[in-house]
Amino acid sequence: MASRSEILIVGGGVAGLSLATRLGKSMGKSGKARITLIDKSFSHVWKPMLHCFASGTVSNENDKVNFISQASGHHFEFWPGEVASIDRENREVVLSPLLEADGTVILESRRMKYDTIVIAIGSTANDFGTPGVKEHCMSIDNLVDANAFNEKFRMELLRAFANNSELDIAIVGGGATGVQLAAELHKALEIVGPYNLHAFGKAPPKLHVTLLQSGARILPAFPESVSAAAQQELEHIGVTVRTNARVAAADEHGFTLKDGSYVSAKLRVWAAGVRAPEVTTAYGGLTINRTGQILVNPNLSSIDDERIFAMGDCSFIQDDPLPATAQVARQQARHLARHLPAWIEHGQKVPGCIFHNKGAIVALGKYNGWAALPGGTVWGGGISHGFSARMAHLMLYRQHQIELFGYYRGLMSFYSDWVETFVRPSVRLD
Q1: Is the CB of residue 29 less than 8 Å from the CB of residue 75?
Q2: pTM of the shown model
Q3: What residue stretches are annotated with the FAD/NAD(P)-binding domain (predicted)?
């Protein structure tokens, strides 16, 4: 191995940024390797919170991590851009041109050398080829999507307010993202209510959210008791939940279901399915599955190239498939951070990554939450709900902040967020 190895990390999500931060401390600081993080955005957000950004109940500025700042403080480099292809023969990645919003070229296409590359580009919703979804539906796969939805949501609320009409929103997908978004939208409207009443002299418009789930129950990764309780809670706050509702097509006014019925919606969100970004098809001929995920060995190296690793939602372990969750991504990032230095410096093979399931948590805004903890079976360890589960969900995010910032700076970010609750609106208004 070279005395100063070139390590590229593609994707600054939960796994990518965590790995860059850890390797920066262990190898970047000592000069043993140059670690470079590549992402098409300039900042990181915790993906499990995207539904909060979409509804406007979380302030982006407080909860974004700037890549340049993080790199400066943790001994790695950051380059904005998207990896368009990988030249495995010459060990180079090709970055797409970096463009302004109007299409003006800021940076031309670039090539970067690597000795080791780790791909952590996450996932997107999977429309399964359903007609009309790409043209007429929004998603919340990243911060740009979430902000775009929030802008539309606020403008349509204003339109409904002025016209004394209702706002219909349909969300396809009864997993954690869809369920939490449905609850968070109602929370946002409840917060906005007093502002509208005092500023305009009347209550906000009525919000009608329909959640469409193709399967027999929402939250299929949780026990049936949690699914039933969550559906009851959603219906209590005014969400219409339709299970066994397969979408046949989407148009500018709503969704046509397989049974021939039609669901009207001014705003349409697709939050169903998981697939890797389409760009994985251009990654040097690496073997991918039907959903674009890169096939990897148990130690997270590509089955085609030992110098290329993939982790998180964009990877797939054939012998031991894992769910596309932040918990899996974080554990895989820690595993590579622990073992990549020995492989790069001494050629010691990276061992297989063993996933330790710590359960799952879902929070429905301020209304309720559930934590399913493992025991004798995967989800059979026990279930808690209410305030304790909602706080546990919040603490997962705080733990992520401490992992990135360090203990003291992480605690200061908690304090800063708490202080701001007294001086800023608790929902985005502009």
Answers
A1: yes
A2: 0.86
A3: 6-333
